Amino acid sequence: MCLAIPAQILEIDQAADAATVSLGGVRRPVSLALIEDAEVGDFVLVHVGYALNKISAEEAERTLAMMREIGELADQEAESIDQAHQADQATELDATHSEHATPSESGR
Amino acid sequence: MSDLAGQLKIRLDTVSSAVTIHSSRPVTAARVFAGKSPAEVVRQLPTLFSLCGTAQAAACVAACEQALGRQPSAAVLARRQALVHAETIKEHLWRLLLDWPRILAATQARSPAASAMPQVMRAFMALRQAQQAVADPFTVHAQQAEQSTAAVLDPSALLDLVTEQALGTVPDAWLQTLDRPAAVRRWAEQTQTPAAGLVRAVFAQGLFACGANAVARLPEAPWRWLAESLANANADAFIAAPHWQQECAETGPLARVAAQPLIAALLAEYGNGLLTRLMALLVDLAQSARGLEATLDAGMDNPGSAVQLPIKEAGVDAEVDAGVGIGVAEAARGLLVHRVRIAAGRVEQYQILAPTEWNFHPKGVVAQGLAAIARGGAEGPELERLARLYITAVDPCVDYRLSVS
Predict the structure, then answer these.
(1) TM segments (chain A) (predicted)?
(2) CB contact under 8 A, A5 and B2
(3) What digits encode the pLDDT tens for the residues B262-290?
(4) How far is B69 from chain A (nearest CA, A)?
(5) Is the ipTM of this complex over 0.90?
């Protein structure tokens, strides 16, 4: 269940053993502590701030396509949960305060 | 897209010692495989969950084979076992060389041990590539799987790193020498590896029992319970917050080696605190190294009765319906369970139960461990450091955010 996400290397900082990657269009810093021969333009799998290993552009695209599918499934699920919640709230007006994270908290 | 992997939000309230854990992990992501052919799923799934891709591949192919009524040969199974062992070695060395040193030393500076990690990755990838160059054993195509056993794999680079960076000696000798708690301190003082340095630091900082709590470990063969829970109408809730007969349970290196003499003695003396966890990681590393060697050497006939095998024969016991398969592999972080339902050559349902959901359950071993640390009286940055150490010792496979207030 540990998703590692494909990203393309935009810049490399040799001294810091780090790189900037494009992760779904967003620039993110990643550590290159696990790989030795990364170059700008390479696709790498990124997990918790580490570039794990290099992959081909085709492999990256295939994996990203599957991840988009997962994202769409999750959105559909969230929508149906939201609708269920709204229905619940309509019937339980005196419900106690929820401790669940609000949408603004759960965003990064 | 970058948030897709999810995150754990862990809150520790110092006044009440209450811990809350909220997970945004995509625990039902495996639904994406519904409608695909088993062969396609076996090919795609490990690329998606690539961090522990080998264990994922092993559980996936085992589930599909059972659902399709197929049985891999002993030689194919031995090859798969070897590759899962190799992945566990890679993951455990990552914890020992990068993660533990950073938090135990309380510094952001790169530890000298970290420089060995690219070698570990290279040795692991070289094994995987040597295997792929001949054939992939993780496939439902019997002929291709058989071909995979012809690949000659040399595990020596990875095994040498286990000795040089962790144990200081070969796994068999290490397991024999470290047979009781008193031997641990002696080994740590006489050994110059980064891992021995971690054990010395745990002694020097008096962290033996840090985080010890009463959460049980998953029993050895819970297959029937798991199969029933995953077939249940409430399976999604079980996957998000699994329990063993209504109780939280831990899975992972400590649960795997709890009966080993050294770890049993440490558990009796210090409970499931940091020293026991660090030594369990090392014992599991040594056993995985021995397992890698044995499963490659002996191949089909005799992987050695004393060797632990990460891929479990869960399906037989689980008594599932026709068309359903359960695949189980002990991944580096713990028990990984896949369940598939196949009809007319297509996957109808795919479920994955991962170790992080057991260990980071809102009332599970990390929640209880952090509460114990808070009750122990640590404050401020030291409390936060100990909390991070305990989280690392159990090891989520995902990013986490810790807030102490």
Answers:
(1) none
(2) yes
(3) 999 999 999 999 999 999 999 999 999 99
(4) 26
(5) no
